[in-house]
Amino acid sequence: xxxxxxxxxxxxxxxxxxxxxxxxxxxxxxxxxxxxxxxxxxxxxxxxxxxxxxxxxxxxxxxxxxxxxxxxxxxxxxxxxxxxxxxxxxxxxxxxxxxxxxxxxxxxxxxxxxxxxxxxxxxxxxxxxxxxxxxxxxxxxxxxxxxxxxxxxxxxxxxxxxxxxxxxxxxxxxxxxxxxxxxxxxxxxxxxxxxxxxxxxxxx
Length: 204
Prior knowledge:
The protein is an all-alpha fold. It has one domain (3-200). It has eight helices and no strands. It has helices at 3-11, 15-31, 37-51, 56-83, 91-114, 122-132, 136-161, 165-200.
């Protein structure tokens, strides 16, 4: 379903149902990444502008959904550690996880603050935060900051372009492609960095 179809579908439902759907979509993006939550937020912002609704429920719904989803992922990371899943892996794998965990402890705040701007891998960042042992309050704070910044941007774009659905859809598609390229580059750099660190640790 493209953005225009989301907008048309949203016009047919009452506001409370739309805001509830936005909460669920924002939550599901962190649990089932293919869910197109961003398109739904932009569609919601178009309707808020068109019908003169208050944007407060829109922000409340998407913020609450994003934070709840992020904390579920964080809990999954903590569960992985408690269950001892990683300790049963090979020595090389454990060493790689230790390297990644140490780096996440040093740079985790920045990674979590930017998580919302990277499609598809948002959940992985919060699972990693749970594995790395970051504090729950800190993780929730950065999840909220990132969600606020991203959703302000999405709603701002939706309000600015208004009913020009084709322009909105094209802009969102271009951003998604660019973000995926950035994610791929980041993963490649991380892989090279971990591989080099493993060689220095004697895992050739």
